[in-house]
Each structure stands twice: as C-alpha cells, then as structure tokens.
Fold each of these.
Amino acid sequence: MRKHRAAHGAPRRAPYLFLLPAGLLFALFFALPIGYAGYLSLRKIEVKGLGLGSGARSEVWAGFSNYTDALTDPVLLDGALRVLVYGLIVVPLMLGLALLFALMLDSDRVRGRAFTRLAIFLPYAVPGVIAALLWGFLYLPSVSPLHYTLDALGLPQPDLLSGGALYVALSNIAVWGGTGFNMIVIYTALRAIPAEVYEAARLDGCSQWQIAWRIKIPMVAPSLVLTFFFSVIATLQVFNEPTTLRPLTNSLSTTWSPMMKVYQDAFVAGDIHSGAATAVIIAVVTFALSFGFLRLAGARTRREENR
Amino acid sequence: MNHRTVAVLAATVFSSVALAGCGGSSDDSSSGPVNLTYWAWAPGMDEVVALWNDANPDIQVTVKKQASGDDLVTKTITAAKAGNAPDLMQAEYQALPTLVSNDVLADISDQVAGAEDAFAPGLWQQVTLGTDAVYALPQDSGPLMFYYRADLFEEYGLTVPTTWDEFADTARALKETEPGKVLTTFSANDAGLFAGLAQQAGAQWWTTEGEQWKVAIDDEATGRVADFWGGLVAEGVIDNQPMYTPAWNNALNTGEQLAWVSAVWAPGTLTTAAPDTAGKWAMAPLPQWNAGENVTGSWGGSTTAVTNDARDKDAAAAFATWLNTDPEALTALVRAGGIYPAATAAQSGEALAEAPEFFANQPDFYVTAAEIAEGTAPAAWGPNTNVAYATFNDAFGEAARTRGDFRAALTTMQRATADDMTGHGFQVIE
C-alpha cells in the first residue's frame, strides 16, 4: 500500500518542480512589474507649500483619479484617433504586400528566390530608430534625393512631413520595415503545405490563380491571423518612428501617439503615476482588441470545421 | 569603459592602497580617504577630476557618465528615492527646482560661503532659487548672441542689427533683395532659446511669493517676444522650420539662412552643421529691445550640485567649489570640455585667449563674449519647467506651422504649466 501511494505522489510533484523556473521568471519579470505599474497608477504625488526641500512631496492614494484624468484628456483620445488612421493604412498594406510577396516567392516559376527573400526581409533587421532617421532624410525637401529628382523633372514636390501626407510618410516606414517579417511567417506556412494537395489541385485542372486563391490562402489563414495579431499590437504601440521624426517637423506633437503620451508623462513631466495609468489603459485596450480578434477568428474556424 | 575612466579608477585604487599603506600618520586613517561619486556628462571631465585626485589624496572623486541633461535628472531622482544618489551631480539650471522639489539636492550655503562673488548675479540667483539656500555652483553658462554670415551681409548690403526693430528690417531687406533666402528661422523644437529671449525682455516665468508660486509665462515681456517672432513668421520674412535638422544644417551650410540667434557655444554646433562656412561667420551682441543697452538671456549651461545622499557634504562641496572657481580647474574644463565657464574671472582667462577655430577671423571673440555675458539677465525656473518646455514644442510648433497666433500658443503654455502645478497641489497665482 505504502509503495503504491509513493508512486502516486511522486509524479504529482514533478510537474510543479519543472514549472518552477518558468513560473518564477514569469512572476519576477512579468507579473511583478505589471502589478507594480498597476499600484503606481493608483497613487499620486501631493505637494505642500512651495514643494521645495525635504518633506514637501508625499506619495498618497489617488484612487482612480489618474484613470479618470487620462480618459477625459482630449490629448489621449486625439492620439488614439491618429493611431487608428495610421493603423488603417499600415496593417492592410503591410499584410497585403507580405501575402503577395510570399505567394510570388512560393510560385514555381520564380528565380533568385533566396536573394529576393533576403532583400525583402533585410529592412526588418534595421532598427526602427535608424530606419526612421534614414527615411527622415529622404522626406526633408532640401536634402532629399527624391525631391531633387522631382525638381529636376519639373514636377511638384510634395511636403511629406505635414498634413495628411505625414500619415503616409510614417506608414511607409512601418510597411518598409515590417513587410519582410510578415512575409517570412506566411511563406514558411506556404512551404509547409503538402505537395499532394497541389498535385490533386492540378489534376483537377486548377490554374495558378485558383491554387493561390482557393488552396494557398485558406491554408495559411492561421498565419495570417497571427501576423494580423502582431501587427495590431505593434501599431497600437507605435513610438519609435514618430518620436524620431518629431524634431524634423512642426506637425508632430510630443503626444502624437498614446505611447508618446505615456513617455511624456512619466519621463518628461516626471509624473510616473499618470504615465502608469495611461500605460495600463493602453494595455487593456490592446488586450481587448487582440483577444477579441483571436476569439472571433477562432469561432470562425470552428464554424467552418463544423460545416 | 574608455582608457581615461580606467586610468582614473586605477588612480583611485592605487592612491587608496598607498594611503592605507602609510596609515597611522593621519587622524582618520582607519576610515581611509573619502570616496565621492560624481554623475556628469561634460566631455573631458575625467581629466579635470584627475587633477583634483592627484592633489587631494584624502578626497577621491570618481566620474560616472550615467546619462546627460534631463535623462540624468530622471535617473538621479529615481536613485535618490532608493537612497542611492551620487554624492555630486551635474544639473542644468532649469532642472534645479525640479531636483530641489524632489528633495535630491542639499543646501550647501554654509560650505560655499564666499563663492557668490565669483559669478554674475543673474547666474547666482538661479542656483539659490531666490532663497537663502545654495543648491549648486554654476559651472558653465550660455549667454545669447547674434551669429551672422559676415561675407553675405556685406554682399547683400545688410547692416548688423543692434535692436530687434533693426533685426526685423534686416530680415525684410534680405527677403526683398534675395527672395530665396531668409535671415533665420523660428524654431519650435528647443524652448531653451525662447526662454533665453524672454529673459532678455525681462520675463520671470516662475517666482515665489510666500508659500505660493507665481507663474507668469504669458507676462508682458514674453508676450512681446512671442508677438515679435510670430509677426516675422506670419510676414514670411523668416522661416518656420525647426533647427537641428539635416535641412537646417544644409540651409546654414549653403547660405540659404544667413544668421542664427544662439549662445556662446554656437561655434561648436556650426563646425558640424555648416563645415563649409568656416571663417565666414561673425558674432555680435544680441539685438536689444532698447537701443544702447547690454542685456542678454541664457540658453543652456549647467551646475555642480551636492545631493542629500552625499556621505560627506563638506568634502563634496569643497570639490564643487574647486571645480567651478579654481583657475587651474576652469582652464582644464575649458580645454578638455570646451565649455564657457560661469565664473567671471575665467571668462577672460588664458584658456579663452584665442577665438574658436571656426571664428579665426574674429580674434576678439571671447573678449566680446565676456562683455556680453556681463549683461546676463536673471532667469527664474520652476518645479515643472519640463512641462512648460514640452508644451512649448507642441503649441509653438503648431503656431509656426500655420504661421498663426503666437500669443495664443503662449497662453496654452501658461495654462498647461499652471494647471499641472495646481494638479499636484501647488498653490499657484497667475
């Protein structure tokens, strides 16, 4: 009996033992900082008198006042709307191009596949700040070779750093940098489709177009969902490109995107508490949007399977 | 870590070993030398500190380049919360109230008594915040001046403006003769310059009255400055694009822009921004609001402060005093760091005898600079200068882009700054 119980007990402990390192790391470097940010967002600094010298500043409970302040701040809402417009340009364009390139690379007739794949992927290896600096150079009329060429041809030279064109300028950097990565994800999924499927399709008389449209795209749908998921999150957190381009133009404010507002609050204005509250709001919205989308995509897949 | 830092560290280690070896001769040999940490970003600071360490074996200073400017302020405040702030730190003038408000800086008025006379009153007032306390010692300063392309001014028959009215006339005259060129630009990406121009006009953005802060960013003096630049931008006789961009560098380098209102450190910036124009520029006093006066504002400049976490405040203050008033230290700072010293005596010292290389055509560059610096107007900073500066970027950026209402932008700046203070519990009067 005793032997039997021991044999039962031991394997039950083992999984937890194996989980321990991951759990510990998760708690230390993920749960704890998030919890601390949540805690900070419920506090605020209160100043007495001139606020100079010792004891003039104290940290007190703020309740949800940081949240109500952030949510009623038109600056944050304006930033969110700008990011929405930006996202409406970036996400469809980037994923559309990624899918197109992946399908083209996957087609049998293509040559120089390895080189092309690398060439499209390479911009992803350029850090976001560097990419924005490079593009910033190309956008400034007086130093841009693009404007120089247009001028030489006698064509009008658009100002890419103000008005609606600014969205195009910013989106362009994201699309240039992100298409390669998404293409690789989709391309990898395409290569994993068994050859028999194509063989069967060809036997049934499918054209290349029909194969792409009816077989390839539906079969890589999970990776399209995945890349969409990543792209939405990246878009909501856009920070590098507008921050880097900001000094070049009067049209980009220091609170252009919600993330920039968090940075301004926490590290420029020195109010870590309202910065934390805004960050939590952005995290909740990101979470709701992305998991809402995943559930939607999941439900759709299940429906199709049941059909 | 570069070789210099290694050398300093090695020197620190060796000297403490040496001191421990011959212990017993001095009174507090058991505790060894005082070791101070100094967070600073001024280039060449290691060399200057090495001079001190050689001469003062019982007070050893180690320089650490943690960050610069506002980033260092944020880092130090965080470190101070954890009780780990360095003994000494470099801080810009406008950051001092923020640091004092966060209880980072020690009052060293007892330790540095008598240092006041070494500095211009306008600078000294910025390290006392107008109180009896002394929170830092001035290190370098940035009096504003007028830089212009001497060759092009001659070519187009322009006169060097001595008043702001003449400045506007010069801008108009240039636009008329050379429509493709502009005198200068109004840049909304650095509030420091605008603050300096407002100081010249007599602005006092933050002052204290009893237990209350008076915020007067939209006062008459600043309004005058805003209207002046807004008028020129609206008229189209000056540009509205930000400075420090590749486009701005290009405009200066090709002579598309002929002038720059800047501080004494401008030669360094021009050397990299407009390398092809060496020897073609000249420096003159900043145009005045009233003819015949000699008033200027400041743009930039920093101080050396002792923190509340300093283990030995006397030793730290002694080092700060030496660094910012001793002729040998200041000469080394000028040579190694290229700074413009805040101490009045050093402004005519041997290290500044020669004009900067870029201004070789103007041998009396630093003589003129010292005369201009004498008229440095006081500046009054508040506990949320960063908020005001960030609002400046956004509000004036928008106003410059639309060539619109600068006075409205100024009101926005005032509102945001005062509201931020009220929100944190400050008593604010406007």
Amino acid sequence: MIEANRIRYQKPFRVNWWGRLGWLAAILYGLYALNYLDVSWLRFIQGLGNGAVFLGEMVPMDFSRWELLVGNLLETVEIAVIASAFGVLFSLPVGLCAARNLMPSWVTWPARTFVALCRSFHPVIFAILFVKAVGFGPLAGILTLVFASIGFIGKLFAEAIEEISLKPVEALRAAGAPFLSVIIYAVVPQVLNRFIGFSSYQFDANLRNSTMVGIVGAGGIGGTLFAAFQRFDYDFLAAILVSIIGLVMLSEFISDRIKRVFQ
Amino acid sequence: MTAPGTYTWQRFSARERMARFVVFFGFAVALSVSLRTVEVIPEFLWDSPTQIMDLLKRMWPLDYAYYPGGIHQALMETLHIASLGTLLALVLAIPVGVMGANNIVRVPLLNWLAKLILVSSRSVNTLVWALLFVAVFGPGALAGTVCIGFRSVGFVGKLFAEALEEADPGPIEALTAAGAPWTSIFLKGFWPQVAPAFWGIALFRWDINVRESAVIGLVGAGGIGMVLDTALNLFHWDRVSVILLSIFAVVIIAELLVTNIRKRII
C-alpha cells in the first residue's frame, strides 16, 4: 500500500521544453538564413507583382502548336519506357549482388558502391555528363534514367532480398541445388511482388524525370519547355505544363491499376 | 459437401492471369514501339567511349584552388536554400496535411482540395518549379528557396496526412469527451502521436532537398548549380570535377547525418 503511494505520476500535459527549444531554434535559423540569402520582404512583394503579370501572360493557353507538343510528349514517354525496361533489367543483377545475406563481401562491396554512386548525383548532373558523352538527343536521357533507376531499384531490391526468410534457401542448398536454382526457386518468389511494386513506382519517377532531362539537352519535352521559357513564350509554356501534369496524373492512375492487378 | 471431384488448384483465377498478361503484353508493345521510333543515332553511341575518355582527361587534374574562392560560398548558399526551403515546406504542409486528413477535417470537398494541392506540387518537377519561380522572383536564392518549399509540400503533406489518418482515435475521443477545444485536441491528441513521423519525414525531405538544391542553380535559382552552369558553359572541366566532388561530399555527409539522427528519434 505504501509502495503504491510512492509512485509519482507524470503530469499529463507537461510542457515539452525540448520541443519548444527546437521550434525556437528553427525560427532563429530561418531568420538567419533569410538574412544570409539576402531575401527581403520587398523582393517578395515585387515578385508577387511579377507573378501576377506572368500568370496573366499564361492565359489563354496556346495549343496551336499541338503537333510539336504531342511529338515531344511521345518522345518523353518513349524515353521513360525504354529507360525503365533497361533500368529494371540491370538493377536485378546489381541488387542481387548487393544483398549481403546471399553474396560474399567482395561482391557486395563494389555493387553497393556502384548503387550509392548512382543515387548520390541528381539525374540532371548525369544528364549533363551523358549529353557530353553521347551528344544531344533522347539517348542521353535514356542513359541518365537507366542509371537513376539502378540507383533506386537496386538499393530497394537489395534491401528486399536481405529481408527474405532464409529457410527455403537453406533447404534448396541442402538438397544440392545449383546457385541459379536457389535464386529462381527460393529468392525470386519471395521478392517478386515487391519488385514489381518498385518497378511501377520507378516508371512513374522516370516519366517525371524524363520531362526534365530535356532542359540540359537530353531529349523529351523539357527542351521545348526551356525554349518556350527563354523566348518568353508563356502561353505555350502553360500549355506544355498542363500537358505534363496531365501525363503524370494519367501515369499515376495507370500504375495504380497495375498495382491492384499484382496485389 | 460436394463429391470429391478433380480439383485443379491454381494460384490465380483466369481473370487475374488475364490482367497480368495484359500488363506485361502492354509493356512489351510499348517498349518495342518506343525502341523503333525513338531517334537514337547509333554512331553517337559507338563514339561515346572516346568522348568519355576525353571528358575524363579534361577533368583531370582537379582544380582544387578554385574551391575556396569560387565554390565554398555557393555550397553554403545551397545548404541554406535546402534548409530554409524545407522549413517553408513544413510550415505550409501542416495546414494542408491537416486539411487532407479525413479523420480531422470531415468535409470531403476540403480533403479533395488538399489532395489536389499535394498532387500538383508533386507532379511538377523541381527544375520546372525553379524555372517558374525564377520568372517570378528573378534569378537568385529567393526563387530557389520558394521552389524547394513548394516542391516539398506535396511530399511532406501527403505523408503527414497519412500519419494523421493512422493516429489512434482513443486519446482523441477522450479529449473530445472531456470537452477540449480543437486546438487542444490537435496539440495533445494528434501531435504527440504523429510528431516522430513528422520529424522523420522532415529529415528525409531535407536529405532529398540537399540533392535537388544543388541542381536548381542550372536554371538560375541560386546555389552551387549556378557555379556549375558557368563552369560548364566555359568548358572549365577541371572546375566541373571539383564542383561535382564537393556536391558528392555534401550529399554523403547529409545522408550520414540524417541516418544518425533518425536512429535517435525513432
């Protein structure tokens, strides 16, 4: 009885000083960074005025060059489709090599470094280098997105393999199955569904990114977008933007349906 | 009981198999059509090893002397753009996330409006957002910060709304029954449950933003990308390699930092 009385109850609504301190630090940092970046209220207000002019020039949208628009959108989709196919194809062996529970460390180490290298640079930087290497055009965009896909799917695929149950693997090994059979019958069935999920997600991401790689000359709608922007052709710019958003939403809808098929 | 007939057990129904077949077939058709129509010049591909060797030769040796004068300042600016943009995104994402959570705001129209805001933020690429804000605010860090903020709202807001929707209704019902006003319900009922997820999302997004803020300068939105753009246009490949190396170093440091902090708070 006496013991029970000694229990000190925490105050239910006590003040979280650490939380408040965190918010205060965030606000102070925000003010410091605003000062550092030379961002002022005046520029912001001026910008809003420019923004209104900008929006005003965007309407009405100019769909008169729809043939160019549709052609570029198709090229964008083609880049995304090809890059996803090859990216998924290459990330299978890379992901497998990077899984630490199946492979010895002299295999996983280079594979993991390669995946990390693919992930750490933004696709645009890859696009710049590939434009230099293979010239302007969709090929540079495809290569860029293949590397971006390996960086993303390779990592997730390796993590998925590391989480599998090792019992089927041991059973097959004990029965004397060769390495390829172990992969096909023990590993793949456990990760296939997740792998398809990653792939459809990556296709979405590739489609979004393929609208952008054109800005540095790697093919697709991005080049037209950037040209329209530089020529102050804002009504055509608005038409391009609306079609990009429409395309991305359409692909999200389709990949949602695909995910349902494989659930 | 039916008579023990000859059942053939199959993993998927005929319809499921059909759907799978349609997906694979559709992708195969799309791939072959794309490969046939895309304008790839094979000579460029065969030429690429020479070009890559040439590129590497021009990049070597690295021009380290350029770092203190030309790169350091821009790199700090990039980090500030990323952090301030993330803060802006958090401030914007809290109201939008709350509006999108259908267990807090029970008006389907508002939920739908929030979803629309979040989807449009995510479907426009960072570089495209940067272009738009450069047109609005002029070249510089302000455009970059607002661009990073607007681009991140979709991501942070979506995950925040999902975290709110998964919150345990028990404490909220208790607070409601005790007659608490909605601010208290939010601060004492929802917030303690979603705070770890919220900070986790914020850190994750900050990590992504560090990568993205390094390139938005290519279209004039401030930071290291502007230095990179200048070096590229002047074919100073030895400077380009130093810039790429410093971006790489910052990205790796940011990722290590985020991984360590996440381990502590979650």
